Amino acid sequence: MDREAAVIRAEMIETRAQLDQKLSRLEHQARQFSAKRYVRDHMPEYLVDRVIGGLLTLIGVRMAVKRFKARRNRRAEVRAALASYGRW
Questions:
Q1: Predicted model pTM
Q2: What is the predicted pLDDT for the residue at 85?
Q3: Which of 16, 62, 65, 86 has the smallest number of CB atoms closer than 10 Å to its CB?
Q4: Can you tell me the distance from the alpha carbon of 79 to that of 44, in angstroms, rounded to the nearest whole number?
C-alpha cells in the first residue's frame, strides 16, 4: 500500500511540475501578444511616419464618407427625375 501511495504521490508531483511549466510558457506567450508590445513592434518609429499615416487614414475616411453621401444623393436625383417624368 505504501508503495502505491508513493507512486501516486510521485505522479502527482510530476503532473504539477508539468502544469507549472506549461503555465509559465503560456504566460510568456501572453506577454508577447499584449497590445503594448504589438503597437511597439508595428508602429513606425518616427513622428513623420505617424503623421503621414494619420493623414492618409483621414483622407481615406473622408473619401469613403463622400462616396456614401454621393450614392445617397444620386438615388434621390434618380427618384426625382422619375417622379417628374411621371412614372414614379
A1: 0.38
A2: 79
A3: 86
A4: 48
